Amino acid sequence: MNPNENEFIDSTIDTEQTVNEEVEVTLEDYSTDDGADDKDKLIATLKAQKDHWKKKATEKKDEMVKTDTKIVREEVKQDGLSQIDLIAIMRANVDEEDIQEIVDYAKLKNIPVSQALKTSVVKTILSEKAEERKTALATNTGKSKVSPSRASDESLLDKASKGELPEKDEDIQRLVKARIDAKRKS
Predict the structure, then answer these.
(1) Based on the domain organization, do 33 and 84 belong to the same domain?
(2) In angstroms, rounded to a whole number, what is the distance separating the alpha carbons of residues 134 and 141?
(3) Could you list the mean pLDDT of each consecutive 10-residue stretch along the chain, which spans 186 residues?
(4) 120 in a structural domain
(5) How many domains does the chain have?
């Protein structure tokens, strides 16, 4: 190997490490006494190297732009729904409970949510869920609260004569008033 070739290889290693820095290479650095043919080869090599690094730099810029767009797309996918998908869901009047099922189906089939809403499978699922909600509302599965009825004065007197006294203070006061009123009337 020629000592000049070793220097050339060393210079390429340095330029690979510092892509963004300007590299100045002059013909005096690689001057040889072999003649004009070596200088022409050197010039051709340096031009090729220059073109190579320009190409690498533009590829890096293109790669950075591509990664930026990938990041934006990933952010949209992290939310799960694009704006078009949200509009389609709103127009279809989908309940909040069913949105995740539609999104899961769209991911499974690898289609957009707007297209998944048009499939017969999703339409069937949505109609069944809507029917279940209507049935649940009609049957009113929750507890119905029965308000405690207030005992009348006569029932308080009857229970007290049988030995059953009320537990609440209000009922005891009402019982006393009812006995006083009963004695006045008689």
Answers:
(1) no
(2) 12
(3) 52 47 54 68 89 84 67 53 86 88 90 90 92 84 61 81 85 87 83
(4) yes
(5) 3
Q: Nearest 10 degrees: CA dihedral of 138, 144, 147, 149?
A: 80
Instruction: Look up residue 66 and give its two tokens.
Output: 């591509």
First to last CA, the chain: 137
CB of 179 closer than 8 Å to CB of 157: yes
Mean pLDDT of all residues in the chain?
A: 76
The contacts of residue 10 (CB under 8 Å, 6+ apart) are none
Q: d(Cα 89, Cα 96) in Å, to the nearest integer?
A: 10
Exposed (0-12), middle (13-18) or buried (19+): which is 11, by Cβ within 10 Å?
Answer: middle
Residue 103 lies in a domain: yes
Tokens of 55: 């190409």
Whether 44 is in a domain gets the answer yes
- Domain hosting 169: range is 153-185
Residue 13: inside a domain: yes
Tokens describing residue 151: 């005992």
Q: Which amino acid is at 57?
A: A
Residues 81 and 133 occupy one common structural domain: yes
Residue reference for tokens 């020629």: 2
pTM of this structure: 0.36
**Which tokens is 172 given?**
């005891």
